[in-house]
């Protein structure tokens, strides 16, 4: 019985941690893609500014979406299988 409660708690907390981590990675991917697009436009316009390297924005975004989905899935699964703590005598 105690193992089931611990397993439920770990799944719920892992979901709560994965969701914002995924949102942060996805936001980072959006920022990096914006920087890359801006630097390409600046290079086309003949600007002498230094080109900023955006990095692998695609993989940041992909990993972010995977973490978002995993976090939401774990939170939903922990809520559907175990439910919230029951109130009253049982």
The ordered H/E elements are HH
What structural class is derived from the secondary structure elements?
mainly alpha
Tell me, briefly, the overall form.
rod-shaped
- The count of DSSP E runs of length 2 or more, i.e. the number of strands, is 0
Helix fraction bin: over 70%
Structure description:
The chain is mainly alpha-helical and about 90 residues long. It has one domain (about 10-80). The chain contains 2 helices and no strands. The radius of gyration is 21 Å and the shape is rod-shaped. The chain starts with a helix and ends in a 9-residue tail after the last helix.
Q: How are the elements arranged and paired?
A:
Layout: H1 2-44, H2 57-81
Helix pairs in contact: 1-2
Which features would summarize this protein structure in a list?
90 residues; mainly alpha
Summarize the entry for a quick read.
This protein is mostly helical and 90 residues long. The protein has helices at residues 2-44, 57-81.
